Every structure is written in structure tokens, then in C-alpha cells.
């Protein structure tokens, strides 16, 4: 497994496993505490694992947490997703940058999303399972949602949206979300 910095988002990393394939399929390590530690992250900081299953076209996000934020490791364990990170850390050299990735069950690449960044994804396949490893227990009172189609972000979602939560459909613009977060 190797770690690669994401230039567009300061502190974000892609963790790329080394799959071992044979006639049975493949095996790969999807988390390695030594590799995580090698880039300055505490592997023991992650306290909760979650999984979502989405159908093609489903969009989830853009989500972040107020307060101390929430760092996460995100991996598409089955299928394929278009994954997006928006840096909303005011003191970051990549503040307001947007980066997108294609994560898939074929590659098992894991994306590290630093606390203070918004995150969202769209399922590109009939079924897409997305695994999250989060560094704080979820507290719904800290949830912040930003409109996926905010023109300021201009995210090039690859498919028409087939479904999303009511919370995501009613999400405010980036500007409104940032104003609300500051107050």
C-alpha cells in the first residue's frame, strides 16, 4: 500500500493498495496503520465505520461537520463512485479548492478527507457500496449540508441525479452555509 498526496486539497491523501489477483479473484489490504502513520495521521483516531449502498445516479452530499469537523477515510468497496472534496478550512492553502476522484471496487483506493472539508459522491454503477472510517462519533446536531449544484463550486457531476435525501435537495448554497456556520 502506498500513500499519495492530493495536491488540490492540503492534507488529503489517496491510499492505494497492492492487490494480489489470481483465478479466485483478488485480495488486498484496505487499511494499514503503518502507512497511515507514515503521513502523520493517527491510525487509532478512527472510531466509527459506516457503509452506504447507492443505486446508479444517487447523489449524497455535500456534507461536513461543524465544530471540530470530521476526518474520514472513504472507499468504494463495490461498484464505482464519483467522489468530491471541497476544502472549507479558512486557514488552508487550498481553501475553496474542489477535487474529484473516481473510486471503485476494482482498485479499492481509499481517500483521506481532512476535517473541515465537505464531501459528497455520486454512484456511477447499478450498485455502489461506499465504506467510511470516521474519526469522531456522529453527532447529527453538527451536520452541515451544501447544495451539490452550487454554481460557485461548479462540480461536474457525471450523471443526472436519480435520487437524493430531502436534506440534500434543500441544502443551502455554499455562501449561506458558510455564513450559518460562522454564526
Portion in beta strands = 35-45%
Strand order of the largest sheet: 1-2-10-7-12-5
SSE pattern, N- to C-terminal: EEEEHEEEEEEEEEHH
Mean of the pLDDT scores? 95
Keywords:
single chain; 183 residues; mainly beta; six-stranded antiparallel beta sheet; five-stranded antiparallel beta sheet; 10% helix; 40% strand
Give a structural overview.
- With 183 residues, the chain is mainly beta.
- The chain is built from 3 helices and 13 strands.
- The chain is globular, with a radius of gyration of 16 Å.
- The termini are far apart.
- The model has no long low-confidence stretch (mean pLDDT 95).
Write the layout of secondary structure elements.
Blueprint: E1 2-5, E2 13-16, E3 20-22, E4 25-27, H1 33-38, E5 48-55, E6 59-65, E7 72-78, E8 80-87, E9 98-104, E10 110-113, E11 117-123, E12 127-134, E13 143-145, H2 166-169, H3 174-182
Short description:
This protein is 10% helix and 40% strand. The protein is mostly beta strands. The model has no long low-confidence stretch (mean pLDDT 95).
Amino acid at each position: 500500500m502506498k500513500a499519495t498526496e492530493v495536491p488540490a486539497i492540503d492534507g488529503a491523501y489517496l491510499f492505494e493498495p497492492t492487490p494480489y489477483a489470481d483465478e479466485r479473484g483478488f485480495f488486498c489490504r484496505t487499511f494499514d496503520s503503518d502507512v497511515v502513520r507514515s503521513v502523520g495521521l493517527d491510525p487509532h483516531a478512527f472510531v466509527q465505520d459506516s457503509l452506504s449502498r447507492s443505486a446508479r445516479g444517487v447523489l449524497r452530499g455535500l456534507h461536513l461537520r461543524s465544530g471540530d469537523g470530521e476526518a474520514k477515510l472513504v472507499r468504494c468497496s463495490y461498484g464505482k463512485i464519483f467522489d468530491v472534496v471541497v476544502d472549507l478550512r479558512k486557514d488552508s492553502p487550498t481553501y475553496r479548492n474542489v477535487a474529484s476522484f473516481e473510486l471503485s471496487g476494482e482498485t479499492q483506493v481509499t481517500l483521506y478527507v481532512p476535517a473541515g472539508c465537505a464531501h459528497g459522491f455520486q454512484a456511477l454503477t447499478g450498485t455502489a457500496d461506499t465504506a467510511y472510517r470516521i474519526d469522531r462519533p456522529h453527532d447529527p446536531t453538527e451536520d452541515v449540508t451544501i447544495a451539490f449544484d452550487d454554481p460557485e463550486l461548479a462540480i461536474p457531476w457525471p450523471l443526472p441525479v436519480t435520487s437524493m435525501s430531502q436534506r440534500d435537495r434543500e441544502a443551502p448554497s455554499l455562501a449561506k452555509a458558510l455564513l450559518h456556520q460562522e454564526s
